[in-house]
Amino acid sequence: MKAPIPMMPLIEFFGIFTKPFALMIRLFANIMAESHAAVLSLIAIIFITVKAGAVINGSMTVVAVAFGIFMNALEILSHSSRLMCSPCFRLCLSACRK
Question: Could you tell me the mean pLDDT of each successive run of 10 residues in the chain, 98 residues long?
Answer without folding.
Answer: 80 89 84 72 85 89 88 79 68 68
